């Protein structure tokens, strides 16, 4: 069964929320090779499986973690690309992925489905929300957000696009049930919009920046004031618990390259261009709208994520109320994996 089908088919999505994450997925030995003997205090694994998405990953592209892990005798295995966070989390729950980054929504959906293996390990610094939006064509009769009532809206279910749409609709007195949801991966949703198969698209960079350059569009509502969390780095609970040192090394290097990326958007664009196959001028727009640094998980951040989860439950998007703290580490272990440089 293909990952894309699991995440996008409406019937399968319902099963996902009721426990689809518990399906057994074959895992190759190369992905899960571990050493039974303790190689060094702080870790046991000889391989670390890192996830990346089709939107690009600066840690992967700059190859910043490989030297650190090589010195520890640990092999880096990049797994992907995943079209979006829900598919990444599905792979993590199956044991294929140890660490990855997603928006605020995918961990909530997985926890609502009963998954306990996926945990928060660090936050991401929020952007201004300019790289995401609810989009229509410039010549569309849809002039304001309230006009999308009853219209076909394409987006990735269970992603930050889902949250943007739900929150934005609430601002104008509507709910997700007031629109015709077309659940597609980010790239499929973009293509459906360009081909006029749907009237509204909820998407983000780099696809948004590319479409902005390709056809005239109108952004009815960007994510300013909505994407206040910025997303998270997540980890597989068993891996993080047994390998706090490796987790800390990864987060440290991810933040270092994030600091460089925030200061060098032109160089970031050049670095992404060969892999994403998008013009450097478009990717520079993306780089200037993104933020790359990490931040330490705090009670305030967890409380804000709890408000997001409560919103989904109140809107009947997820089937049960969850406690976000259940997907965090005990204080001592959380401190052990968190680099001092994270604020």
Structure explained in plain terms:
- Helix content is 43%, strand content 17%.
- The chain is built from 16 helices and 11 strands.
- The longest helix is centred in the C-terminal third of the chain and has 20 residues, at 244-263.
- The model is unreliable at 1-39 (pLDDT under 50).
- It has 343 residues and is of the alpha/beta class.
- It has helices spanning 3-8, 10-18, 29-32, 58-62, 66-71, 85-93, 105-112, 160-171, 186-194, 207-214, 237-242, 244-263, 265-276, 280-289, 299-314, 331-337; strands spanning 47-53, 75-82, 99-102, 118-124, 132-137, 152-155, 180-183, 200-204, 217-222, 232-236, 294-295.
- The strands form 3 sheets. It has a 5-stranded mixed β-sheet, with helices on both faces. A 4-stranded antiparallel β-sheet has the order 3-10-4-11, with helices on both faces.
- α6 crosses α7 (105-112) and α13 packs across α14 (280-289).
Give a quick set of tags describing it.
343 residues; alpha/beta; five-stranded mixed β-sheet; four-stranded antiparallel β-sheet; globular; disordered N terminus
Classification by helices and strands = alpha/beta
Principal-axis shape: globular
What percent strand?
Answer: 15-25%
Number of strands: 11
| CA radius of gyration | 19 Å
Count of runs of 4 or more consecutive helical residues: 16
């Amino acid at each position: 069964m293909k990952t894309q089908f699991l995440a996008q088919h409406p019937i399968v999505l319902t099963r996902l929320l009721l426990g689809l994450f518990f399906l057994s997925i074959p895992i190759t030995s190369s992905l899960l090779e571990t050493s039974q003997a303790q190689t060094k205090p702080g870790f046991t694994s000889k391989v670390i499986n890192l996830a990346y998405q089709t939107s690009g990953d600066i840690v992967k592209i700059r190859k910043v973690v490989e030297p650190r892990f090589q010195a520890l005798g640990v092999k880096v295995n990049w797994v992907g690309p995943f079209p979006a966070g829900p598919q990444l989390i599905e792979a993590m729950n199956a044991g294929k992925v140890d660490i990855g980054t997603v928006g605020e929504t995918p961990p909530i959906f997985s926890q609502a489905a009963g998954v306990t293996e996926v945990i928060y390990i660090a936050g991401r610094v929020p952007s201004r929300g300019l790289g995401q939006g609810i989009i229509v064509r410039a010549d569309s009769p849809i002039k304001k957000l309230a006009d999308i009532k009853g219209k076909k809206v394409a987006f990735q279910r269970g992603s930050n696009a889902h949250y943007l749409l739900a929150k934005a609709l609430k601002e104008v007195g509507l709910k997700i049930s007031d629109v015709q949801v077309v659940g597609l991966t980010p790239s499929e949703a973009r293509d459906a919009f360009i081909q006029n198969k749907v009237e509204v698209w909820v998407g983000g960079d780099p696809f948004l920046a590319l479409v902005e350059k390709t056809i005239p569009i109108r952004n009815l509502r960007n994510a300013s004031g909505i994407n206040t969390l910025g997303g998270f780095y997540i980890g597989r609970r068993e891996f993080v618990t047994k390998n706090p040192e490796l987790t800390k090394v990864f987060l440290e290097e991810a933040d270092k390259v994030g600091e460089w990326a925030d200061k060098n958007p032109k160089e970031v664009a050049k670095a992404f261009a060969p892999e994403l196959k998008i013009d450097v001028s478009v990717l520079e727009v993306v780089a200037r709208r993104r933020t790359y640094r990490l931040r330490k998980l705090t009670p305030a951040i967890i409380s804000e994520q709890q408000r997001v989860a409560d919103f989904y439950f109140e809107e009947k998007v997820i089937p049960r109320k969850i406690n976000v703290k259940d997907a965090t580490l005990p204080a001592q272990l959380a401190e052990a994996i968190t680099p001092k440089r994270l604020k």
